[in-house]
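Below is the record:
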Amino acid sequence: MKAWICVPLMAVALVGCAGKKVYRDSCATQLDAAWHELDLAKAEGFAGTVSYSKALSLLTAAKTQQQFEAFEGCTVKSEKARFYIQESRAGR
């Protein structure tokens, strides 16, 4: 009887681990790309300092989430940061 309880619990645990793996790679890729784009934006000099500040704070929060293995939130914040970096380059 105990085996019938343990098997589904183990399956749920394994599915949860597999989901983290997908976001882990995405988080790392998005975060690296965003930091690179932010460095380029700073080097170019631009008028969109508000968007730059938003991007920087989002990247800081994303890096923190990456450290605590909250990879889905890290991915979302990195993608938003990349949007604000594009806005800052456009001077908005």
